[in-house]
Amino acid sequence: MSNVKEKDFPAVDGCMSRRRLLKAAGCAGAAALLAGGLASKAEAGLSGAKTYPQVKVANMRDLRTGRPVKFDYPLVGRKNIHLGCSVEGGVGPNRSIVAYSMFCSHLGCSVEMQWESGMLVCECHQSVYDPGQSGRVMEGPAPTSLPMVNLDIDASTGDIYAVGVAGLIYGLRNNLLDGEEVR
Ligand code: FES
């Protein structure tokens, strides 16, 4: 599924070295199963037996430099942000497609991409996260990294799917409870 070749879709640079970011067409609700299916393996947080939905969030051909995409996952209203960074956990050419929860791990304010620095910055108390280092905290009171959305790509179509979340999203006991699941 995720064996996408560089010739198949536009190349994407690492965001830290070249300050290039991606955008994809955001999608809060469209769910689709891929040909062959995706294994929904990850468990949803601390205690639940539920598994994550597989939700199409973009297509490789929609990606553009400098305009990240926001999408709900795994619950409605739980915003995430798509970026172009060559990082562990990234997918696609150069592993350059990543997505993070936009809820700061300190007190849950929104984080946004700061173009000049290439960092994700919280608007409330200025915690700084490095999207090139799997959302690691670089400054500020945030206690943990930003949860990373696990992505997968259909190599035949270029569709990008959210398939899980690594880390507990701020304010939730379980990433799939306390809300309406995105379909
Ligand atoms: S809520 Fe983000 S730094 Fe406090």
How would you describe this protein?
- By secondary structure, this protein is an all-beta fold.
- The chain has one domain: Rieske [2Fe-2S] iron-sulphur domain (Rieske Iron-sulfur Protein), CATH 2.102.10.
- It has one helix and ten strands; from the N terminus they run αββββββββββ.
- The strands form three sheets. The protein has a four-stranded antiparallel beta sheet with strand order 5-6-7-8, with no helix packed on it. Strands 1-10-9 form a three-stranded antiparallel beta sheet, with no helix packed on it.
- The chain is globular, with a radius of gyration of 15 Å.
- The N terminus is likely disordered.
- FE2/S2 (inorganic) cluster binds next to loops.
The third-level CATH topology is Rieske Iron-sulfur Protein
Extended strand count: 10
Approximate shape = globular
Small-molecule binders here are: FE2/S2 (inorganic) cluster
CATH H-level superfamily? Rieske [2Fe-2S] iron-sulphur domain
Number of helices: 1
* Rg from Cα: 15 Å
Report strand order across the widest sheet: 5-6-7-8
Helix content: under 10%
**Reported CATH architecture:** 3-layer Sandwich
How would you characterize the largest beta sheet? 4 strands, antiparallel
What is the ordering of alpha helices and beta strands?
HEEEEEEEEEE
Relative strand content: 25-35%
Alpha-beta classification: mainly beta
How many domains, as an integer?
A: 1
Unreliable spans: 3-43
Chain-averaged pLDDT: 74
What's the oligomerization state? single chain
So what's the CATH class?
Answer: Mainly Beta
Distance, first to last CA: 20 Å
